């Protein structure tokens, strides 16, 4: 079954026509095949490999800049969607936060703020941080047993 490649989202033709991929870039010409065979030379292979690595670094940097330019206007749309999601699912938020927003946040002096931060540590989103917190909890449990 024949299909139009510009309508299939996974093809390069679609990505280029929809401005999702760089169309004009000098690094793309390096990836083209050469029709003239060359005689093997160890130095030539070494320099070619270094050049290929450098070209791929440059291309990755340009692609990231292209992506960031393309996604620059997306921030406000994403924020609006996030706000709408929070508004629609307000009932799922913890009651404490809802009560604080209704009553207003009480004023805290520095001592209270430090004790609250110590009581509720902020969980870091990395695996290493989670592992570190588990190790601290285990070491505290071991101290409590003694």
TrEMBL record:
UniProt feature coiled coil, ranges: none
GO annotation, biological process: assembly of large subunit precursor of preribosome
GO molecular function: ATPase activator activity; ATPase binding; structural constituent of ribosome
Signal peptide range in chain numbering: none
Any one of the GO CC terms: preribosome, large subunit precursor
Highest taxon, organism lineage: Eukaryota
Gene3D superfamilies: Ribosomal protein L24e
Domain Large ribosomal subunit protein eL24-related N-terminal: 1-24
Family according to the record: Belongs to the eukaryotic ribosomal protein eL24 family.
PANTHER family xref list: 60S RIBOSOMAL PROTEIN L24, RIBOSOME BIOGENESIS PROTEIN RLP24-RELATED
Protein name per its UniProtKB record: Large ribosomal subunit protein eL24-related N-terminal domain-containing protein
Species annotation: Dactylellina haptotyla (strain CBS 200.50) (Nematode-trapping fungus)
């Amino acid at each position: 079954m024949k299909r139009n490649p510009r309508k299939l989202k996974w093809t390069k033709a679609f990505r280029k026509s929809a401005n999702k991929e760089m169309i004009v870039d000098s690094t793309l010409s390096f990836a083209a095949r050469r029709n003239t065979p060359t005689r093997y030379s160890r130095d030539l292979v070494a320099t070619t490999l270094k050049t290929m690595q450098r070209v791929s670094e440059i291309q990755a940097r340009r692609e990231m800049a292209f992506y960031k330019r393309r996604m620059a206007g997306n921030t406000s749309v994403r924020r609006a969607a996030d706000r709408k999601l929070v508004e629609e699912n307000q009932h799922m938020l913890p009651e404490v936060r809802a009560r604080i927003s209704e009553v207003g946040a009480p004023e805290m002096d520095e001592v209270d703020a430090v004790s609250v931060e110590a009581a509720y540590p902020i969980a870091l989103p990395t695996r290493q941080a989670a592992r570190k917190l588990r190790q601290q909890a285990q070491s505290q449990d071991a101290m409590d047993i003694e």
